[in-house]
Amino acid sequence: xxxxxxxxxxxxxxxxxxxxxxxxxxxxxxxxxxxxxxxxxxxxxxxxxxxxxxxxxxxxxxxxxxxxxxxxxxxxxxxxxxxxxxxxxxxxxxxxxxxxxxxxxxxxxxxxxxxxxxxxxxxxxxxxxxxxxxxxxxxxxxxxxxxxxxxxxxxxxxxxxxxxxxxxxxxxxxxxxxxxxxxxxxxxxxxxxxxxxxxxxxxxxxxxxxxxxxxxxxxxxxxxxxxxxxxxxxxxxxxxxxxxxxxxxxxxxxxxxxxxxxxxxxxxxxxxxxxxxxxxxxxxxxxxxxxxxxxxxxxxxxxxxxxxxxxxxxx
Length: 315
Prior knowledge:
The chain is built from eleven helices and eleven strands. The protein has helices at 7-14, 31-42, 54-63, 79-91, 105-113, 153-169, 191-204, 219-223, 225-230, 249-262, 287-313, and strands at 21-26, 46-52, 72-75, 97-100, 126-132, 140-143, 176-180, 212-217, 243-245, 266-272, 278-279.
C-alpha cells in the first residue's frame, strides 16, 4: 500500500494486539521473499517457518545481510518438495497460514489442491487482490485475477462468497459487490451479463450471503456514481463498491495490472477457499506488499477463530 494514504497504516493498526500466526513459507530462496516473511515476523503479524533447501536459504540470507535469528527452517530438497512440506505443516496443525516464497504459483497451488494431501474444502479456491488505489476512497478488492480462468456461474458464486467473507473479516459489515461486464444491461449475446443477473438473484435467495450485489455493471458506472446516474442506474453499489467481481481471469488480470501500473496502486494478494488463507504474492512484489498480504491474512485468520469460537459456544 502506498505511503501517505493511511490505508496501509490503518491495516497494520488493526493487527495490533493479534497473536502472530504460525506461517509455513514455501521456498523463500530469494531476497524479497525472505525479507518479506521475516519483516512480517518482526512486526508481529506472523511467526514464519521457512520451508526449503536450508543451505540455499542461509546463503540468500548471508548474501543479503539478513539475520535469520532463531527462525525455524524445515529442510526440503527443492521447490516442489517445499510446497508439499509447507502444506503438510498446515495439515499437521503446525502452521495456520501458507505463504508463497520464490517458487511458481502453480507449484504451490498444485500442492494445495492435491486430492489426498492438500488443503481443499467444498468451496472453489479463488484469488483476491486488495488494491490501494490513490484515486479511490477505500481499499478495493478485485477477484478473480489469478486462478479461475473462465469461471461458470457456480464458480463465480464461490468466488463472490470468498471475497465477501474476507471483506467482513476486515471489518466491513455488508460489503458491496459490483459484478462487472462490458455493459450494464442483460443480453444473451454477453454471457457475463446473464451470470451477473443470476448472481444477484442468488443473493436474494441467500445462496450468496453477507453482501449487497449489483450487476451487470460496466466499470465506469461501477466506480463512478455520476456515470451510473447519467445512464439512469439506481444502485446502492454504483460509485461505492468494496469488491469488483470480474467476468474472467483475463479481464481481472488486465484490470489489476492497469490499476497498479497506470494508477500507481499497490496491492496485497491472497488465495481463499482452502482450509487456511494462502499468501500468494508475485516474485516481483515489494516487501511492503508482502507485509500487507500478511496483515490481511492475519486478520482473516483471527476472524476465522472468532467464527469457530462462536460455533463452539453455540454447539
